[in-house]
Amino acid sequence: SQLLGRLKQENRLNPGAGGVAASGGTTEVAELEANLPYEGYYQGGKFQFETEVPDVYNMVPPKVKCLTKIWHPNITETGEICLSLLREHSIDGTGWAPMRTLKDVVWGLNSLFTDLLNFDDPLNIEAAEHHLQNKEDFQNKVDNYIKRYAR
């Protein structure tokens, strides 16, 4: 697809390189798969993201949804993602801008599992509160989700 070509060009990635693989069909939708770091809550998980690039890209951000069920403070169990660079308008200036690329989106998605993991401003409030109340039980639930949904 055009999206897959654009992603390869922008990221200078071959499918599977750098922990991310992309596959596309006949539409402007691609699935990204992230193999996450060997540390942190989500180690060993394989998470798929659907990325839809609008006709007016890159004036507006792509639409991204997590296809893998996950227990995460910034991703709902139905796949909505809280990542400022995916917002068309952002008060703090970290939202989408025309100079951003799909490479930035891939970086942002990977960062949601490491340095941008945010328990203080969650989209999935229940997951954030679970972490606050019992970190060990939170880790157990994350591990259970990875075993069931992210292999």
From TrEMBL:
Superkingdom to which the source organism belongs: Eukaryota
Keyword ATP-binding: yes
One GO process term, biological-process aspect: protein polyubiquitination
Single GO molecular function: NEDD8 conjugating enzyme activity
Annotated metabolic or biological route of this protein: Protein modification; protein neddylation
Subunit structure of this chain's protein: Interacts with UBA3 and RBX2. Interacts (N-terminally acetylated form) with (via DCUN1 domain) DCUN1D1, DCUN1D2, DCUN1D3, DCUN1D4 and DCUN1D5.
Descriptive protein name: UBC core domain-containing protein
Organism from which the protein derives: Gorilla gorilla gorilla (Western lowland gorilla)
